[in-house]
Each structure stands twice: as C-alpha cells, then as structure tokens.
Amino acid sequence: MTEFTEISESARPAPLAGKRVVITRARHQAGALRELLEKRGAEVIEVPSIEIRPPESWAPFDAALHHLREFDYLIATSANGVEALRARLRSLGLGIEQLKHLRIGAIGPATARAFSNTGITVHFVPSDYRAEGLLAALAGEDIQGKSFLIPRARVARDLLPDALRARGARVEVVEAYQTVRPRFRPGELERLLAPPPDIVAFTSSSTARHFTALISGHHLREKLAGAAIASIGPITSGTLRSLDWTVSVEPAEFTVPALAAAIEAYFSRLP
Fold first, then answer.
1. Neighbours of 168 (CB within 10 A)
2. Three-class SS of residue 152?
3. What pTM was computed for the model?
4. How many CB atoms lie within 10 A of CB 74?
5. What are 48-85's pLDDT values in tens digits?
6. For the domain 53-179, what is the CATH code?
C-alpha cells in the first residue's frame, strides 16, 4: 500500500521566501505593507523616498477651516490630508464637529479609515480609488453652485478640481502637507540596495519621482536593472513609465493589501 505524507501548512515554504522587496513609502506609513510582505516570507528593505512635512504656510488652510460653514463638500484625497485636517482643527481650537454639515468623500478605504473614531460620516468612497472615481461618484449629484474644500499635497493632479469647476462648483484647494525627498547618510543607499532587490514597490507618484531622483543622484539605477517594479495603481504606473521604468505588477484594486497579494502572485508565476 502506498503511503502519503501530508505536508502541514506551517511546513510549506512562504510564497516570498528568499525575495528581497524594497518599499518606498514614508517611514511612518510603511508598517502595513512591510508586515504583509514579511508574513509572506519576504526580506523587506525600507528605502523611504518621501517625508511628509507641513506646508510652507498654514495661512490658506487655516483660513478655510475658519470658514467651514461656507463649504458644502469636503473631498479627502489621502490619509495624510485627513490627518493634517484633524491636527490643524485641534491646533486652532476647533472641534471635529465643525465637519458634520459637510458631505464628505474619501478617495479610498484607507483615507476613509482616517476619519475613524471621529463621529464624522464619510458619505462616499468610489470603487475606483483615484480622482476619476470621485468624479464618477459625484456624477449623479447636482453640484452647480456648491462649494468644495480639497485639502491635499502641494503637488497633485488638477483633474478633480478642474472637472468640478467645469460643472459649476466653487472649489478651494489648500495645501495640507508637502512631500519632500529625505536625505541619506553617505553610502546608506548603496548598502540598502546591495545585493540588488528582486522587486521595488511604489504606492504613489511622489514615491516614484523621489525614489528615481534619489538613486539617479547616487548612480544606482543600473544596479536595479534586474528588479521588477510593482505599482499600486494606474496613476502611479503612469508616473513610473514616464520615468522609464517598466511596470510588472499592478493590482486590480488600488490598496496596500492588494499590492502585497499581487507581488506574491507575480513571483508565483515565475519559473
């Protein structure tokens, strides 16, 4: 009689065992992706290519917050924007209840979660987690003459505010934070990227731009020639392609968990 030995789940090799994965998020935001990849057995190398800093001046943001009653909608395009909003309200001595009259949209589930434990309702989260999705979510609403507040990064696409204005809305875009390129100690980048990684993961256009500038400034790009490139979604992928990267991984859902799963799927397909 033939005997079969059942292999337990714990005895099976982790799907990303032996893979070196570079993640480029800001250091304080990298934990979730790192954990998801490490659970799959990856060796994760953090190369934070952006830092989140306050704007050069809080004056425009503060002025908008002091006049929240004049707005009908608040559109949050990132969790960073929500965190800056909450912190600035506290700094000005304004309660979170100042937002309760607003119809609030969040670009994706992570941004919506940033409102958790506030008592504030997020009214819509599009299925397509980008500006195009927010516009689609608003397609059935009469926004003629309505006022929108959009707190966001200094550098961002103007598709959303431009399209809202074209539909007759008043839109005020205020800088809630800026993304800047961090500095590394001499030789640190070279150490982090040796041996070369198997894949580099990007979660935003800003990480793509800043990472490319970082490694180009240190003449490291040629050392990544064999690494695959993973992108969280089409906007980031477009930025990467404009920077002459070939995108090998892009999940169908533009979230961190989906990105980790897509990286696993990519390596599972390789010989």
1. 11
2. strand
3. 0.81
4. 25
5. 998 999 999 999 999 999 999 999 999 999 999 999 99
6. 3.40.50.10090
